[in-house]
């Protein structure tokens, strides 16, 4: 496994990474919910559903070309 040549640009600009970070945050909130006071009115599986939707969006974002990020791998036959 090796990094793409423009990994710094990908790290800063890729929607895939942004969405996956959001999914991790939502998952962490879901794990912390039992520690929060019971007066907080949040449905039980809300964060699980939001995390699933966010991961699905990251999957789609991975397949879509994103402005400002280009990578031409000489070993990749599909351009």
Q: Could you outline the blueprint of secondary structure elements for this entry?
A:
Elements: H1 7-13, H2 15-32, H3 46-63
Helix pairs in contact: 2-3
Short descriptors:
about 80 residues; single chain; 3 helices; mainly alpha; elongated
Number of helices: 3
* Main sheet specs: none
Count of β-strands: 0
Mean residue pLDDT: 82
Order of helices and strands: HHH
Explain this structure to me?
It is elongated, with a radius of gyration of 17 Å. The chain has a domain at 15-63. It is mostly helical. The model has no long low-confidence stretch (mean pLDDT 82). Helices cover 54% and strands 0% of the residues. The two termini are 20 Å apart. The protein contains 3 helices and no strands.
What is shown here, in short?
The protein has 79 residues and is mostly helical.
């Amino acid at each position: 496994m090796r990094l793409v040549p423009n990994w710094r640009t990908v790290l800063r600009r890729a929607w895939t990474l942004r969405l996956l970070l959001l999914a991790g945050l939502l998952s962490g909130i879901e794990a912390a919910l039992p520690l929060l006071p019971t007066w907080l009115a949040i449905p039980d599986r809300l964060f699980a559903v939001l995390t699933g939707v966010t991961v699905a969006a990251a999957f789609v974002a991975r397949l879509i070309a994103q402005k400002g990020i280009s990578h031409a791998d000489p070993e990749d036959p599909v351009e």
